[in-house]
Design a protein that fits this description.
Layout: E1 2-5, E2 8-15, E3 18-22, H1 34-37, H2 40-46, E4 53-57, H3 63-76, E5 83-88, H4 91-104, E6 111-116, H5 117-128, E7 139-140, H6 143-156, H7 167-180, H8 184-191, H9 199-215, E8 218-219, H10 221-234, H11 236-244, E9 246-251, H12 259-268, E10 275-279, H13 294-297, H14 299-302, E11 307-311, E12 313-314, H15 319-329, E13 341-342, E14 351-355, H16 358-374, E15 382-386, H17 393-401, E16 406-408, H18 418-431, H19 436-443, H20 451-464, H21 468-474, H22 481-498, H23 505-524, H24 528-542, H25 548-568, E17 577-581, H26 582-585, E18 590-595, H27 612-626, E19 629-638, E20 640-642, E21 648-650, H28 655-658, H29 663-666, E22 668-669
Parallel strand pairs: 4-10, 4-11, 5-6, 5-9, 7-8, 9-10, 12-13, 14-19, 14-22, 15-17, 15-18, 16-17, 18-19
Antiparallel strand pairs: 1-2, 2-3, 3-6, 20-21
Helix pairs in contact: 2-3, 3-4, 5-10, 6-7, 6-9, 7-8, 7-10, 10-11, 10-12, 15-27, 16-17, 18-19, 18-23, 19-20, 23-24
Length: 678
């Protein structure tokens, strides 16, 4: 593909998803005045000498601009003739950076390779596949193909599936072993201790899975990194051939790299250690994916002669917002010490808003958003951020009632999520056993029952003309083997519900979760902890209703309002406010940011408070949330939530709020007034 930029032709090509800039030999080298284009900190990075270097780039400090000009400097000023590798976390980022390089100046005869770790790795693996036992035309499995191959491995090993780990969980464990360079045992002990009893079987499945891929000339997504690492670390001839053609390695978002990605970076640059890594340790928030903050913290120890640069000038946020962010992040021990320098003026004082509970918190947020929109703020420049998707449940309902359109970056709308639909379906079959969709959804969750048996069971119930509980006691259905065991488990749960003196939604849900669904989630989902948190918030919502009729009337109202809004109004994307977990919002910025659910147990999560390293990652996550805001920041929290046993739990506000120094001066503390409902 060719396009014209700045009066000259630039050739831009994609080969095996590696993005290259090819710049014509005949072009005249331009003199770039970096001092006019960049600040003093940025110029030091761009003009740094060769050798290992780490750039600690604070939030909003213009790191993308710096990387772009660093590549330009290598090409234009240092006249580098060898390959430059630019490793990014998305191919879009690579395309944008290389496009900017091409628009800065018409340099000469140089090829820059840019792309993700996986895409760069595939390029080399194709070339040297036979060195690691593959053919060059190896295929890369997609996620569904990987699941099917794991399934086949389990069947071939005759492992009983009834209580065994689900395939998506197995693939998650497999990926973590590769990315962290750890054993299966270590990953299970650290991440999923409840699966310890399956360690031997899981290991056998992975051995068979790898054998089947190797004999079929297949790799999965994680294998790409594994085999590229093996190629570089265990085959010295190949390593020499690869590294001798590489002049410089640049790594973006280094705080998000996994151990294997960091090692690959070092190996690619190992000829003369001409490597520059750019990142912000204060934004290292993806340990659950295998990323390690140690990659940044240990870089100066690994390379004793490494140059350390800091980009501290923040162009995004006001002085008042940055002051709060600085107070928070300064409490971390494991970090590069830093102090962001605001370029912008003080701006509005951020708000701190305590509320009685989650419902009142959401009412305040929606009310304030409506005021901002009425005052002329663009909805798409307003974001509500939260630690977990479940924390947005109340807000989604309140926004729907207020007819304020919203887009969710953090996944599906709360009630559309599979696990929430599972438990609402269970409640529905208690309320209306003739609901075929809910009945089939629930019964198929139990071991040994597929579509055919689900249909048989339903026909037996409908044709009996009995109540659900009477039918279960009548033993009018005959099943065998796994299907019988699954059905008996289902019937046992319903018999406990029948025994309740009052069949309140909260009590029904508590039995279902305790007897079945909590374990089901742990074995079926890679993000079990987050889904369990969602269910706890749903329980809080359910606790307000004394009958299933009341509950489903409210859910129907919300659903119908949403359907009506979507079917009658066509909107521009600028008309939607943004709802997002903090993780999903990283790298974005908004004029106005609300951070909600700021109480201990929610943000930070209760799972993070037992280890300093976990707590520090939560603090970094809060720092990321704050630094998404350009002009206005609102911090809110509920003082109470309803527990599973239908009792009120008083919540402490997040310890991170208490870490803000001189809080009454730096925050405008708003006391909400409440009118009694008639």
């Amino acid at each position: 593909m060719q396009y014209r930029s700045g009066g000259y032709m630039k050739d831009y090509s994609v080969e095996d998803n590696v993005y290259k800039v090819r710049l014509p030999e005949t072009s005249q080298i331009q003199k770039i005045n970096y001092e006019e284009l960049l600040n003093e900190e940025q110029v030091k990075v761009v003009k740094s000498k060769s050798g290992p270097a780490i750039v600690v780039a604070g939030a909003g400090s213009g790191k993308t601009r710096v990387i772009t000009y660093r590549v330009a400097y290598l090409l234009n000023d240092l006249k580098m003739r060898e390959r430059i590798i630019l490793l990014t976390f998305t191919n879009k980022a690579a395309r944008e950076m290389l496009s900017r390089v091409g628009s800065i100046f018409p340099a000469h005869y140089q090829i820059v390779w840019g792309g993700t770790f996986h895409h760069i790795a595939v390029r080399y693996l194709r070339q040297f596949a036979e060195k690691i036992g593959f053919k060059s035309n190896f295929a890369v499995l997609d996620n569904q193909d990987s699941k099917e191959l794991i399934d086949l491995s389990i069947d071939e090993l005759s492992i009983k599936r009834d209580s065994f780990v689900q395939v998506n969980v197995l693939l998650d464990i497999y990926g973590l072993t590769i990315n962290t360079l750890k054993s299966v045992e270590d990953i299970i002990f650290e991440k999923r201790p409840y699966l310890i009893k399956y360690i031997e079987e899981i290991s056998r499945v992975f051995i068979r899975y790898n054998q089947k891929k190797e004999t079929s000339n297949l790799m999965d997504f994680d294998d790409i990194l594994k085999y590229f690492y093996i190629l570089l670390s265990q085959n010295q001839d190949v390593k020499k051939e690869i590294v001798n053609e590489i002049g410089y390695v640049l790594v973006d978002e280094f705080q998000d790299t996994s151990p294997i990605q960091a090692e690959i970076s070092y190996l690619m640059a190992s000829r003369e250690n001409h490597i520059m890594v750019v990142g912000d340790d204060a934004q290292s928030i993806y340990s659950f994916r295998g990323a390690s903050i140690d990659n940044m913290l240990e870089f100066p120890k690994r390379f004793k002669n490494a140059q350390i640069y800091h980009l501290n000038s923040n162009y995004r946020s006001t002085r008042n917002i940055l002051s709060i962010a600085q107070d928070i992040i300064s409490k971390n021990v494991e970090q590069f010490k830093k102090r962001l320098k605001p370029i912008r003026k003080s701006g509005e004082t951020p708000w701190l808003v305590p509320a009685i509970d989650g419902r009142e918190e959401s009412k305040f947020v929606v009310s304030r958003i409506a005021e901002l929109i009425n005052d002329g703020h663009k909805p798409s420049e307003i974001a509500v951020l939260y630690r977990a998707h479940s924390h947005s449940m109340e807000l989604q309902m309140e926004l729907t009632r207020a007819n304020i359109p919203f887009a969710i970056r953090s996944g599906l709308r709360f009630f559309e999520q599979a696990h929430i639909k599972d438990i609402t379906s269970f409640l529905r079959i208690i309320y209306n056993p003739e609901d075929e969709i809910s009945f089939r959804r629930v019964i198929k969750m139990f071991g040994g029952i597929g579509n055919a048996f689900a249909a048989t069971i339903r026909v037996s119930f409908i044709s009996s003309r009995m109540t659900l509980f009477d039918w279960l006691k009548s033993n009018k259905i005959s099943l065998k083997g796994k299907a019988k065991a699954g059905f008996d488990e289902f019937a046992g749960i319903l018999s406990k519900i029948e025994a309740l003196s009052e069949q309140k939604p909260m009590e029904i849900l508590a039995i279902f979760n305790k007897e079945f669904y909590s374990d089901y989630i742990r074995n079926h989902y890679t993000d079990a902890i987050e889904r369990i948190s969602d269910i706890e918030f749903f329980q809080d919502f359910v606790s307000r209703y004394n009958t299933l009729s009341e509950l489903f009337s409210e859910l129907a109202l919300i659903s119908n309002m949403e359907i009506e809004k979507n079917s009658t109004v066509e909107r521009n994307k600028d008309d939607y406010i943004i709802l997002s977990t903090v993780h999903q919002a990283k790298g974005l910025e908004f004029q106005t940011v609300f951070v909600i659910g700021l109480c201990d147990g929610m943000f930070p999560t209760m799972f993070a408070t037992n280890k300093m390293r976990n707590l520090e990652e939560e603090r970094r996550l809060f720092y990321v949330a704050i630094t998404r805001a350009k002009d206005n920041l609102y911090l809110t929290y509920p003082n109470s939530i309803m527990k599973e046993d239908n009792t009120l739990s008083i919540k402490k506000r997040s310890r991170f709020i208490d870490e803000i120094e001189d809080i009454e001066r730096k925050l405008k503390i708003i006391q909400l007034s409440y009118e009694e409902e008639e």
